[in-house]
Structure formats: structure tokens, C-alpha cells
Amino acid sequence: MTPEALSNYAQVQELRVTEVTSYLKRNHWLVIGHPNPRLLVFEKGVDDQGKPIQIVLPSQDDYEDTPYLLTKAVNLLSVLQSVPFEEIVNAIDSDVHNTKLE
User: Which of 11, 22, 50, 68 supports an S-S bond with 89, CB 3.0-4.6 Å?
Assistant: First the structure.
């Protein structure tokens, strides 16, 4: 399923940028500086051609492309971890709930 189609997935609509960034940081993704303050860039490992694997997120929830970029990030995490898309969404959601309990 494409990120466009997945961005209509109900659980993705409920995701927030802070939740995804928290999940990425907890899973050792590094924040990479970017000249555009509207973007957050995370990096971890390299691909088959030796290029850094990056996830680009909007810095706020209210940008028009936020659902698409969050979906694209979750989709990439799903591929990298070889788990279903929904499992990543659930992990982000449970990570948020566990953080609130700490």
C-alpha cells in the first residue's frame, strides 16, 4: 500500500510529530541539522549503496503534508524492521503511553 493510501489509515491520523520523534529518539535515530526549520531530519544506518537512511518529518502537526510524511516515516520503519505497518503505529502509540506513565 502506498503512503498516500496509508495516510488515510485511522491510526495514522491520530499520530503526532512529537510522538514519532520520541519513538525515533528512543530507537537511536540521530537528529540531523537541517537549514529548513520546518523539517526534522533523522538518520540511522546506511542503505545498500552506503547512503545514510533518513526520515524527514515536519516540525509541526498543522502542515498540510504532515499525515503523508508521518505515514512515509512509519512505512519506512515497517520495511526496515520487517514488521507490519500497524505494528509500528501500535509501538509508537504504546511508547507514548508508557512515557506518560513514567
Answer: 11
Q: Which domain holds residue 24?
A: 3-7+15-96
Lookup result for grid cell 546506511: 46
3-state secondary structure 28-91: CCEEECCCCCCEEEEEEEECCCCCEEEEEEECCCCCCCHHHHHHHHHHHHHHHHCCCHHHHHHH
Averaged in consecutive runs of 10 residues, what is the pLDDT profile of the chain (102 residues)?
58 86 96 95 96 96 91 93 91 68 42
- Domains of the chain: total: 1
pLDDT of residue 78: 93
